[in-house]
């Protein structure tokens, strides 16, 4: 019965439920009828192009270490030209050498995101070198050097410094890159916030406040820039372990954090790169104003 049904199905060009994908095409080709299985390659090319960031100009702040360094390596490997916007030039050059060793493309621009003149020089340098910017990743932030303490014991100077870097910095960088994005009528702004906002983590009030503000900025900027072809989204990582030392986090605390997650293993920078690549690509063109949590299921916002 299957043989008879198969003959009829082949005449009609139909696929049978028990046939593996591509089986009919392969069988016909094997009989020498000249049909080649080209549909898969065409479809694959379309999908690949949709998710591609090749030849995009991507500016990443705080890119000399940690998450920023991982993002630089990922985008360079994907064919983008990455601008390493970093205050610590020595670390930035080290990342640049890593990229060059892998035949990637990266340019260092010494940048202090808390200083308006420094950020304006970044914008001018990108315009001079490339004439455009496709993606801005606001990653620079103060966190790993902070001491855990009750909010009423946070020195005012430290509070203001954290907000200056973590909130004003992304604001200044977006302002500097916006004219270039507007010129091309397209762009992607990706703000790296924190899942600690949803968790309401204590003893880091200045950091939590700054990242909550960044989520609010993301939503408001998305409303303003959507009509101009510019999307704005936020990524909220969980407790991500990088090469940066965290003196205030003990091994016991790490174990408790992992135990909260649905996926019971430590989060790494590699767990974030897929989401960031997606938000930078054409595949996310109709997504804006969103806050995507990537924390192994520790929080369910």
How would you describe this protein?
This protein has about 300 residues and is of the alpha/beta class. The chain has a single domain (about 55-295), classed as NAD(P)-binding Rossmann-like Domain (Rossmann fold). The chain has helices at about 1-10, 25-30, 40-50, 65-75, 90-100, 115-130, 155-185, 195-200, 205-225, 250-260, 270-280, and strands at about 55-60, 80-85, 105-110, 135-140, 185-190, 230-235, 290-295. It has a seven-stranded parallel β-sheet, sandwiched between helices. Strand 2, helix 5 (about 90-100) and strand 3 form a beta-alpha-beta unit.
Could you describe the largest sheet, including whether it forms a barrel?
7 strands, parallel
- First CA to last CA: what distance? 53 Å
Number of spatially distinct domains: 1
CATH class: Alpha Beta
CATH architecture: 3-Layer(aba) Sandwich
Helix content: 40-55%
Low-confidence stretches: 1-9, 11-40
- Would you list the SSEs in sequence order as H and E? HHHEHEHEHEHEHHEHHE
The SS-based structural class is: alpha/beta
Strand content: 5-15%
Q: Number of helical segments?
A: 11
Strand order of the largest sheet: 3-2-1-4-5-6-7
Q: What would you give as the CATH superfamily?
A: NAD(P)-binding Rossmann-like Domain
**Annotated CATH topology:** Rossmann fold
Mean pLDDT: 87
Question: Which geometry do the CA atoms define?
Answer: globular
Number of strands: 7
**Which radius of gyration do the C-alpha atoms yield?**
24 Å
């Amino acid at each position: 019965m299957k043989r008879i049904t198969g003959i009829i199905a082949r005449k009609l060009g139909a696929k049978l439920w028990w046939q593996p994908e591509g089986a009919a095409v392969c069988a016909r080709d094997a009989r020498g009828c000249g049909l080649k299985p080209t549909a898969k390659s065409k479809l694959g090319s379309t999908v690949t192009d949709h998710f591609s960031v090749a030849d995009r100009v991507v500016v990443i702040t705080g890119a000399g270490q940690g998450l920023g360094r991982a993002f630089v390596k990922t985008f360079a490997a994907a064919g983008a030209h990455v601008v390493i916007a970093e205050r610590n030039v020595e670390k930035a050059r080290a990342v640049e050498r890593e990229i060059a060793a892998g035949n990637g493309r990266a340019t260092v621009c010494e940048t202090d995101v808390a200083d308006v003149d420094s950020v304006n020089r970044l914008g001018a340098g990108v315009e001079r070198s490339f004439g455009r910017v496709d993606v801005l990743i606001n990653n620079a932030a103060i966190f790993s050097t902070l001491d855990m303490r009750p909010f009423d014991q946070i020195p005012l100077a430290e509070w203001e410094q954290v907000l200056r870097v973590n909130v004003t910095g992304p604001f200044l960088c977006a302002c500097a890159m916006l004219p270039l994005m507007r010129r091309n009528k397209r762009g992607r702004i990706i703000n790296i916030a924190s899942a600690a906002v949803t968790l309401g983590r204590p003893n880091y009030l200045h950091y939590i406040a700054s990242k909550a503000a960044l989520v609010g900025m993301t939503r408001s900027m998305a409303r303003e820039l959507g009509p101009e072809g510019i999307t704005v989204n936020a990524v909220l990582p969980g407790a991500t372990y990088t090469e940066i030392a965290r003196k205030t986090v003990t091994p016991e605390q790490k174990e408790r954090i992992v135990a909260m997650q649905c996926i019971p293993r430590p989060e790494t920078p590699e767990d974030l790169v897929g989401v960031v690549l997606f938000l930078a690509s054409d595949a996310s063109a109709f997504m804006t104003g969103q806050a995507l949590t990537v924390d192994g299921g520790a929080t369910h916002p």
